[in-house]
């Protein structure tokens, strides 16, 4: 599209509506962004890998005070083909311990919450370039009705990494539903603003 001059700059932005929402449709915009889909200004962070949408994460916290990751900066990568948020298993296990989540009995690396407590769960915050990007329980809990039985699944799942690789967080559409996302390849950066729902 760039080489055909159909898009003036190598940028696209993505707005995803909420699950089971009667609000506005999801939107993919080539060549720019639309402020009608977000609140506040975009915050930007540089990409750390030339062929992916990977960037540095300063930390992951629960309720602005309980740190989940080490003091060393971590990495995260945006992935629109992944519905969940995946993180290093030990960090995800600690996160759910702090949130009161429990491992699912049959699905490995998956966690569930007591549905009666979901509305009182604290935010999970990704700290990116010094900015806090909070996810409310509405963002990280998926309620599923299975034959009349409601199960509250966490949208944050664990991954095991080989010892010779650096673990990263994979931020799928569960994260991008909460944040309008600008993918700016020309300036090697991504931008985030709270999505307007």
TrEMBL record:
One BP term from GO: proteolysis
Cited Gene3D superfamilies: Acid Proteases
Example of a GO MF term: aspartic-type endopeptidase activity
PROSITE patterns registered for this protein in UniProt: PEPTIDASE_A1 (PS51767)
Family annotation (SUPFAM superfamilies): Acid proteases (SSF50630)
A Pfam family the protein falls into: Asp
PANTHER family from the UniProt entry: BETA-SITE APP-CLEAVING ENZYME, ISOFORM A-RELATED
Residue ranges of every copy of the Peptidase A1 domain listed in the record: 1-193
Keywords: Disulfide bond, Hydrolase, Protease
Family per record: Belongs to the peptidase A1 family.
Protein's name according to its UniProt entry: Lysosomal aspartic protease
Record has Disulfide bond as a keyword: yes
InterPro entries: Aspartic_peptidase_A1, PEPTIDASE_A1, Peptidase_aspartic_dom_sf
Cystine crosslinks: 115-152
Disulfide bond in keyword set: yes
């Amino acid at each position: 599209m760039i080489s055909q001059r159909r898009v003036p700059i190598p940028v696209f932005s993505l707005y995803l509506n909420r699950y089971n929402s009667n609000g506005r449709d999801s939107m993919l915009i080539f060549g720019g962004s639309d402020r009608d889909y977000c609140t506040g200004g975009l915050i930007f962070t540089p990409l750390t890998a030339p062929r992916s949408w990977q960037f540095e994460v300063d930390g992951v916290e629960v309720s602005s005070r309980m740190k989940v990751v080490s003091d060393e900066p971590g990495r995260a990568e945006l992935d629109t083909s992944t519905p969940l948020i995946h993180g290093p298993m030990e960090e995800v296990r600690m996160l759910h311990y702090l949130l009161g989540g429990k491992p699912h009995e049959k699905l490995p690396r998956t966690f569930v919450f007591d549905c009666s407590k979901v509305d009182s769960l604290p935010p999970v915050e990704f700290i990116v370039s010094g900015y806090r990007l909070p996810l409310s329980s509405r963002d990280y809990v998926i309620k599923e009705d299975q034959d009349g039985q409601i199960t509250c699944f966490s949208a944050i799942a664990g991954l095991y990494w080989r010892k010779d690789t650096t673990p990263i967080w994979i931020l799928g559409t569960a994260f991008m539903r909460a944040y309008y996302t600008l993918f700016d390849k020309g300036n090697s950066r991504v931008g985030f603003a709270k999505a307007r729902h």
